Amino acid sequence: MEKDPEKRLRAAALGIRILMGWVLLWWVLPVAATVAAGSRCLGALQGGEAVLVSAPSSRAVLARNESLGCVPASTLKILTAFAAIHEMGLDHRFPTDIFLDPSRNLIVKGWGDPLLTSESLADLAHRLSGRVSSFNDLVMDDTYFDQDIRICGRGASTNPYDAPVGALCANFNTVCVTRDGRGRLVSAEPETPLIPFAYEKVRALGVREGRVTFTHERAEATYYAGHLLRHFLEKEGCRMLGEVRRGAVPADAERVLRFESAFTLETVLERMLEFSNNFVANQVFIAMGARRYGAPGTVSKGVRVMEDIASNVLDLDGIRIAEGSGLSRENRLSPLQMIRILEAFSPYRELLRKKPGMLFKTGTLTGVKNLAGYLEGQSGISYAFAVFLGPSGAQLDGLMDCIRLGLP
Predict the structure, then answer these.
(1) pLDDT digits (tens, 9 = 90+) for 238-252
(2) Can you count the helices (H) and strands (E) in the chain?
(3) E strands within 254-397?
(4) Of 87, 89, 99, which is closest to residue 135 (Cα–Cα)?
(5) What DSSP element (H or E) covers 107?
(6) How far apart are CA 262 and CA 65, in angstroms?
(7) Among 38-42, 317-321, 354-358, 369-373, which stretch is predicted with the lowest mean pLDDT?
């Protein structure tokens, strides 16, 4: 005999309510456990510190002061990397152009290549030697970047993180030196000769060893690239009859070589993020501005690019950008904004530094210790996280262990 239809409907509805109850319980219990564990983890945080951990669904599973604008330090490089990928593409290669004018002066036009290393200059000289056997002056054109770029937060120390930027720079505007058995100053890198131009400046600084920024003068940085290229050209049998000087490419010069970097933007950004290289970050930052808004590249043009991408691509407002590396304390990002950046950056997450269960970028200034990236929970689910600490920064490792253990 057929059952009562109303009874069947009531039974079905009851079954659905029971099923939804179990689903809700499955969802709520882990979240409740995570929140409880997270509250214990965040107990030592102070007022100006902020944390946000987000599940793949953009659901916050752990939060403290998540809307607070913080100094991001070098975690800002994640946004710089995303903006560079958006503007240039991962396959972009920075060029350097070589011209000859009617007076047989060799002119080198720089476009801001952040990885114009000794190996690159040696390769450039080798390729050029088959086309030019001799020339008069070696003219270095660094006009693609403004001549008076000031990066907020950059100091005047010999530390590599204080190296100045420029359109035509060699070896990150640094040299790496050591002392030989007789105590003499020599290059610590076989591929980079300690040419007289650099030797005199490093010796005057009294440096014993290590990688150092040996000049903060824009012109001297360009001259260093020129003298180093001269060394490699002469090694290839290409004779210079005149002098190394700075100047712009004249209208009647003919391009004889476009030298493209051996490194794609993907490699540039990977190294920038791995070594937290401020010079590379701001080279890319200034180059983005010049590419979109025209030469010369300036800090303000780089800021316009970053702010435009934050607003119109990431749908973020209220971000404050002063430069591209995170050196400036005028930069401001909240954990909420960083999580949005991380969500957009997710396809490129492998560019970040790695350790078991984590892809990350650090950010450190005096009184600031930050970490942002992707954290693997106990079940293998990936969570985006932003941890911006101040006075309790010494507890960062313990805090991250506590957070990870509490994630389902």
Answers:
(1) 999 999 999 999 999
(2) 10, 16
(3) 254-260, 353-355, 358-365, 368-376, 382-389
(4) 99
(5) strand 106-110
(6) 44
(7) 38-42
Q: Write out the DSSP string of 43-99.
A: GG--TT-EEEEE-TTS-EEEEESTT--B--GGGGHHHHHHHHHHHH-TT---EEEEE
Q: What is the pLDDT of residue 11?
A: 52
Helix, strand, coil share of the chain (percent; to 5): 45, 20, 35
Q: Are strands 60-64 and 50-54 parallel, antiparallel or unpaired?
A: antiparallel
Contact 117, 288 (CB under 8 A): no
C-alpha 63/C-alpha 41 separation (Å) is 11
Of 222, 99, 102, 205, the residue nearest 169 (C-alpha): 222
CA distances from 408 to 38, 64, 174, 272, 379 (A): 12, 19, 46, 32, 6
pLDDT tens string 286-316: 999 999 999 999 999 999 999 999 999 999 9
Kindly state the DSSP code that residue 42 receives in the 8-state scheme. G
Lowest mean pLDDT among 32-36, 115-119, 318-322, 362-366: 32-36
What DSSP assignment string belongs to 219-251?
A: HHHHHHHHHHHHHHHHHTT-EE-S-EEE-PPPT
Is the CB of residue 238 less than 8 Å from the CB of residue 131? no
User: DSSP assignment of 120-166, as one string?
Assistant: HHHHHHHHHHTT-SEES-EEEE-TTB-TT---TT--SSSSGGGPPP-
Name the residue among 79, 24, 95, 143 with its Cα closest to residue 255. 95
CA atoms within 13 A on the CB side of 289: 25
